[in-house]
Amino acid sequence: MRTVTAAESAPTTYPWAVHAQELRVKAGRHLAVDGLDLTLDTGVHGLLGPNGAGKTTLMRALATVVKPAGGKLTLLGEEVDARADLRRIRRGLGYLPQQFGFYPRFTLREFVEYMAWLKEMPKAEIPGAVQRAIDRTGLTAKAGARMKTLSGGMLRRAGIAQAIVNDPAVLLLDEPTVGLDPEQRLDFRDLLRAVGIDTCVLVSTHLVEDVVAACTDVIVLNEGRLVHQGTVDDLIAQGGEGDAGDSPAERGYSALLRRHRAEAAR
Amino acid sequence: MTKHLSRTLLARYADREAVLDEVTMWSVETHLEECADCRAQLAGGDALLDRVAAAVDLGIAAGPDPAPRRRSWTMRNRWLVWHLGPWLAMTVAVLGCAVLLQALEPRVPLVSLLAPVAPLPGVAIAWSRRHDPAWELIAGTPAAGLAMLLRRTAAVLVVVVPALALASSRTGTSLALALLPCLAFSAATIALGGFIGVYRAAVVLGVVWTLAVLVPAVVTVHVPAVVQPGASLGWALLTLILAGLVATRATSFRFSKE
Fold first, then answer.
1. CA distance A94 to A168
2. Which of A124, A185, B156, B198 is the most exposed place for a label (fewest CB within 10 A)?
């Protein structure tokens, strides 16, 4: 359980955890996020979109790994610009990149500890927080194993463990369910729901079922722009036809994309 | 005094709880002062200490193993060994070759010609997206930025500076002419890195120095002015100016350049 300090339970001074206006972010020379308006608060937000929609680039901008090329981005009440106190923002962030490597000789515990240290957590809190993060991701038995001996699904969970180790206010998970087997995916959804109670979680995924199962609302991106933001029911209400076996949400998602592409073509 | 104290008397003397009259106490103590045997008897007579020691040993053996002492700086710097080690080893090896070559051909001051570029491979690799598998993870943490860059550069210099000092003493090159250009180019890499990324900065500076100074000096067998003793002051000033520039531009390192 997360313990809430007095400072945390006091009213926060910022209205939104994430607020983007006309946000533009480049991936190399390509403008991958092009004029995005997005506001996120606590809860689990599913980020859907076809390949190349700008999901990963948006995640990297929100994680303050890339500098926005234009527009306005506010994280935890602080505008991300030339004068921003990035260290303060980053202490409140958790980020699981789509692809990440690590020094293979580190053990899982050392990896999470090292990340906790980089996130500038108080020294005395690190061992307890590391153990909690490892337990929550179901890796307790693997804490002493070297990173290079972990399987793909375990590495994914190790990535989630380092992302949540500092109890972030904004948690960014880029394709967290890739490589997880069905049972682990169910555990992960439980974890998401638990974390989402007091955290702004943005989960990018290509699996509509993950979104339906664990997210409080859905954001659909296409070609760097916001196509849709609403509840799962809103997505289902988009109607649309699909193949037999597609869930109503999947049909709604494809209908949304088709409509957006048709509008863009006109 | 040949007669020894009885075990019972010694036991009563050793027992804090037992009451012993003053005269007996006094005679026991007088005897103990002179008799090593009885002192030994008194010290070893009570098995309490042995029993306690045995019980403690047993408790330790039965309990869980002590947690290994965490040497956090070793952990934090272990990336250096695995990730940076080969590059630093190569740098040291090249400097070693330069010492040998300079011994064969003393007219070319190879050590001071290599001094500026010696730290560049290490500095370039220390914080580069291409070479650091954890780059993407670390770039979004509060520790990323100028402080991390300086820490990693320092780790490189900890190896390169002594290697250069050794090379300069072996070849008779002035220490200032070996170390100051090394520091100046490290500072220049970081300063330029604020604009174009440290990796690119190191490549640019390395290529420029090699083409403009190193190759012409080796080909024409003449000592360029920048590595002659009079240049030390210039290098020192350059180092200070570049370090100042880096300090004033600290904010440009907050977003990591790829």
1. 5
2. A124
pLDDT in tens, B95-142: 999 999 988 888 888 888 999 999 999 988 888 888 888 888 888 999
Q: Is pLDDT of B77 > 80?
A: no
The total number of structural domains in chain B stands at 2
Q: DSSP string covering A37-94, please?
A: EEEE-SEEEEEE--TTSSHHHHHHHHTTSS--SEEEEEETTEE-STT--HHHHHHTEE
What letter represents residue A182's amino acid?
P
Q: Cβ contact (<8 Å) for A120 and B137?
A: no
| A residues 82..101 contacting B (CB < 8 A) | 82-84, 86-88, 90-91, 93, 95, 97, 99-101
Percentage with pLDDT > 70 across chain B: 89
Q: Are residues B52 and B160 in the same domain?
A: no
Task: Name residues whose C-beta falls within 8 Å of residue B28's C-beta, 6 or more positions apart in sequence.
Answer: B5, B9, B10, B13, B20
- Write the CB contacts of A80 (distance below 8 Å, at least 6 apart in sequence): A64, A67, A68, A73, A74, A86, A89
CA distance A201 to chain B (A): 16
Cβ A2 vs Cβ A198: under 8 Å? yes
A56 Rama sector, left if φ>0, alpha if ψ -120 to 50, beta otherwise: alpha
How many Cβ atoms from other residues are within 10 Å of residue B112's Cβ?
31
Q: Is residue A2 part of a domain?
A: no
Hey, are the CB atoms on B143 and A118 less than 8 Å from each other? yes
Are residues B230 and B147 part of one domain?
yes
